[in-house]
Design goal:
Elements lengths: L29 H5 L4 H6 L20 E12 L2 H6 L8 H13 L2 H4 L8 E11 L2 E12 L4 H19 L7 E11 L6 E2 L6
Antiparallel strand pairs: 1-3, 1-4, 2-3, 4-5
């Protein structure tokens, strides 16, 4: 018999900051049942054990091989903000964002809990002006036991966030869109290339 999802609900803090559990309180051992992950799913998700607990993958037995990953993001903004980019009082938004992306890739293991610290041999962050915003492309390389997909994605995300930070005074409605993995190579899972835009 599976867990009783109907019994899971919010906590009622009726007694101020101390609070007390409401009628939604779980029975003894019921919370543990919620953590049990189906075996088929746990085998596919390497960062979870059979009980559904998060864990760092042991890569000590893997061979060090060449790995690459590319990611992208898009920062959508109005033509008015685009025209103002060269006159930004904080400095060149694209160059600051490029530097931020490179720095972020090197700190990925500190941001994403189950990522391994990886010695990166190359990081490239490219920003390009488009008619409706700024495109961000990143590429990361290493020779290691694990891949660098997250490093490429973190670099793209932080570069895009930095563009927002540099321009938010002009428009709070700037949007960060489509942070995606474009390509990866190396490792047990083989090569991957994003084939088409997903909805």
């Amino acid at each position: 018999m599976g867990p009783s999802w109907a019994r899971v609900g919010p906590i009622d803090f009726a007694q101020g900051s101390r609070g007390r559990l409401s009628r939604h309180e779980l029975r003894s051992g019921e919370y543990d049942n919620l953590l049990v992950m189906p075996k088929k799913l746990s085998r596919r998700l390497s960062h979870y054990d059979v009980r559904g607990q998060a864990c760092m993958v042991d890569v000590s037995s893997k061979a060090r091989t060449a790995r690459e990953a590319e990611a992208s993001a898009f920062v959508r903004m109005t033509p008015e903000v685009l025209r103002a980019l060269p006159k930004n009082p904080k400095g060149d938004p694209l160059e600051v964002a490029r530097t931020a992306g490179i720095m972020a890739a090197k700190r990925t293991a500190e941001l994403i809990p189950m990522c391994h610290p990886v010695a990166l041999s190359h990081i490239a962050v490219t920003l390009r002006l488009c008619e409706n915003g700024v495109s961000v492309a990143t590429k990361v390389k290493t020779i290691a036991e694990t891949g660098v997909e997250m490093e490429a994605l973190v670099a793209a995300s932080v570069a895009a966030l930095t563009v927002y930070d540099m321009c938010k005074a002009l428009d709070k409605g700037i949007e960060i869109q489509e942070v995606v993995l474009e390509r990866k190579s190396g490792g047990k899972s083989g090569d991957y290339r994003r084939s088409a835009k997903r909805k």
